[in-house]
Amino acid sequence: MALEWLPRDNEIKDHILIGSEHWGSEAPCTVYEKKPLTDPNGNPVEGLYVAWIRLNNPQQYNSYTTEMVKGVIAGFTAASQDRSVVAAVFTGTGDRAFCTGGNTREYAEYYARRPHEYGEYMDLFNGMVDSILNCKKPVICRVNGMRVAGGQEIGMACDIAVSSDLAIYGQAGARHGSSPDGGSTDFLPWFLSMEDAMWNCVSCELWSAYKMKAKNLISKVIPVLKKDGKFIRNPLIITDEYVKDGEIVYGEFKTGAAAKEAREMMKDIPIDFELLDKEVSRIVWTFANLFPGCLIKAIDGIRAKKKFFWDQSKLPNRHWLMANMGYEAFLGFNAFNTKKLTGKDVIDFIKLRQLIAQGSPMNANTYAEVFAKPQE
Ligand SMILES: CC(C)(COP(=O)(O)OP(=O)(O)OC[C@H]1O[C@@H](n2cnc3c(N)ncnc32)[C@H](O)[C@@H]1OP(=O)(O)O)[C@@H](O)C(=O)NCCC(=O)NCCSC(=O)C1=CCCCC1=O
């Protein structure tokens, strides 16, 4: 006997928590778009979608404003709760940047010296990372360009990353007055060796996508320059040689005349994301052809290792970052934000250390000594 006699409520429930009020189309904003799932021949599959969450602030390298952070949270919450969504793709507008982190203008002009406001902001920022790590759909980071600072942090929160070969990766915090505590100090040591994680986290060096692939940060690097109908690899990076004079050179930036020649050559070559998007579709199609429950259980099992340190650190980090907005962040983000006025994007670090060595109080006079002065 079948079970028709059991009382059942068959009215489909709506689990959507946040509406579309935090998304937009005009920069700066977060764009949320449901694109049809496509099969390997590019045919749309009826009733199934991929949620694209796009940071749309290209003039400021897709840095996220406070409103955009809310848009990302809303995006991953929607992707998670929408039963027709198979996977989420996190990307940025254009071909320059995926994201270069928090909006330094907002940081300098609003949050600096408003630590409690920044505490509220950090609650949103932490919510953004959590929304990625808790999304009940696999999350692909489509790295369309630079993934720097907080951009690197939200990128590493994603499950898998495929990258344009023009992208560069790294941190900026220690140069601009923050600590990469929005995930990088927790995630980087899982991806890279401890030595590489340490250097990449603090030095603020930017490393090529090829170098990061070789060091296991990302899954795949895809050529995006299409010369005379044929994709070529980023000519600025050494990709045809592994060892030179006993050193690993694969993935390093070319220098001198070779770099100049590469830059010249790149000038007229259009950027085309066809192969990058094919790779994104291939990964999504692989996910779509797996049991959804087994898939997300496995993904959450791996995410748990990222969360282990993130969950322990995110609250103390929030409190420290909040307090820091009155001190080093005030100096660093204002220096970066006024670079067009002063001609310098960082403070005089040696002067600051000399003043600290003398036991100087950290007041407006001291701050004035370490800032570059506005040019005539
Ligand atoms: C190294 C850079 C990423 C790239 O340098 P470069 O290629 O020389 O480009 P720029 O001329 O510097 O930048 C082009 C224009 O974009 C603007 N820009 C770039 N990044 C940002 C940003 N994050 N916010 C606002 N605007 C940005 C830049 O001002 C230029 O505009 P213009 O009008 O002059 O044409 C370099 O751009 C760089 O270092 N950017 C800043 C990176 C940064 O400091 N991000 C914030 C770090 S802190 C953070 O993200 C955090 C996250 C959570 C936890 C706490 C936290 O601090």
Structural write-up:
The chain has helices spanning about 65-80, 105-110, 115-135, 150-155, 175, 185-190, 195-205, 210-215, 255-265, 275-290, 290-325, 330-335, 340, 350-355, 365-370; strands at about 30-40, 45-55, 85-90, 95-100, 140-145, 145-150, 160-165, 170, 205-210, 220, 225, 230, 245, 245-250. It starts with about 30 loop residues before the first strand and ends in a 6-residue tail after the last helix. Strand 13 (about 245) and strand 14 (about 245-250) form a beta hairpin. It contains 15 helices and 14 strands. The model has no long low-confidence stretch (mean pLDDT about 95). It is about 45% helix and about 15% strand. It is globular. The strands form four sheets. Strands 1-2-3-5-7-10 form a six-stranded mixed sheet, sandwiched between helices. It has about 375 residues and is of the alpha/beta class. It folds into three domains: about 20-225 and about 270-325, Alpha-Beta Complex (2-enoyl-CoA Hydratase, Chain A, domain 1), CATH 3.90.226; about 225-270, no CATH class; about 345-375, no CATH class. The site of ligand LSA72ZH7 has 24 residues, from helix 2, strand 6, helix 4 and helix 5. This is 6-oxocyclohex-1-ene-1-carbonyl-CoA hydratase. It holds the Pfam family ECH_1. GO terms for molecular function: 6-hydroxycyclohex-1-ene-1-carboxyl-CoA hydratase activity; hydrolase activity, acting on acid carbon-carbon bonds, in ketonic substances.
Please provide a brief summary of the model.
With 376 residues, the chain is an alpha/beta fold.
